[in-house]
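INPUT
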Amino acid sequence: MRSLLVLAISCAPALAGDLDGDALRRLVHQDCGSCHGLTLKGGLGPGLTADMLAHYDRDGLASVILQGVPGTPMPPWAPLMSDEEARWIADYLLTGENE
Amino acid sequence: MRPLILTFAALAFAGTAAMSETVATGDLGLVIERASGSVLLIDQSDRAALARIEGLGDLSHASLVYSPDERFAYVFGRDGGLTKVDITERRIAGRVVQAGNAIGGAISDDGALVAVSNYEPGGVRIFDAETLDMVADIPTGSKTIGLADAPGRRFVFSLWDAGETWIADLSGDDPDITKITGIGQNPYDALMTGNGRTYIAGLFGEDGLTALDLWAETPEPIQVLPGYGRGEAPLPVYKMPHLEGWASTGAEFVLPAVGRHEVLWVDARDFTETGRTATYGRPVFAMARPDGRQVWVNFAHPLNDTIQVIDTVTKQVVHEFKPGPAVLHMEFTPRGNEVWISVRDAGKIMIYDTRTFEKRGEIEAESPSGIFFTARAHRTGL
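OUTPUT
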């Protein structure tokens, strides 16, 4: 996750072409997976399969990732990732590419 | 001399046969390989991996317990799989998928029953340790966490949604359930002390923890460190702390704070605060070396490449180092001379001397997480 960290720390808005898909995919499965399950079928947090997220559009889901869900364990990820990275993850989840 | 020679030959043969069938398990252990659904059999004395056993399903956040004879491990997978692994024959001896989504388990003091805690459906299911047949189903209507064994064929667990702790007594024909309400908002994990007396649930929904004295006739919730954040807004929690690897120094508990860069020291007798130690990041595990002299702490993403060692006499950090990316778990050898550390993104188990902090060895493993030595078989609450 070094590249992601550097991006976050530098707060440089990443261009789409600069995104490290492998690192983001790893983040989703390994770190989001702590709560949502390695296969994203759920855990303490809800499942993140495309079916279960069908009521979100990309920007809405990206905003949940960045801001978290107050009153739940879902933390805001804005301190650790850019808007572009959140949108990449939202796309990744909504297209069901992970399943 | 012929009869004597024959006798010698027969003895030698019998000896060889017996030796080839004997597998000592006291210095063995298993490592969860979370991404590949396998466990790695490891040997403490040789600092080596002996075998990989595959086919255990989704092992993210998996844990395991051992049978009293240290032959079988019961592995609790995220996907609801309960797998019985024979470590002497290095194979799966049984497997059931008992729920949709599970979070850990426990084995009864007599080794006869294995309990699994479930998110989906919520509740606890209890299985015959030999056959894996279900012997009891205890629905709770809630995500169920913090399952631990207690003496007397009992299991204790907490309800994330309802803020209750239940004690299931399996010593009779039917489970006898005691429900304790008012534990607090969103208990997320719990620990059982080694003597089976004290159960402490950590709360996510409020600052504090709740203890139960299981020696009491009717255990009542005891508030521990209520409002320890003193109104400061907690930091985002990117990984929940774990209490199962709780630390006790004898006189004190050392507990990871939620959403704060500190560990909390609590008097083991009256649960009052005895100190705080500022840490590098948000702690995930705070684990005492078996002698209680040191507490080793690892941290949540994105600071999860670092470990700090705290001296329990001075409560000061005495050592800090970076084993590698994504340190997920630590396991001490039973006498505490070494600590084995899983470094997920390096694909390695790293082995350190706990006195000199020198590295003693490393073992290749696929995305390793939990490390479990067979000595756990003989400890309550693990």
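end of record. The first helix of chain A runs from residue 2 to 10.
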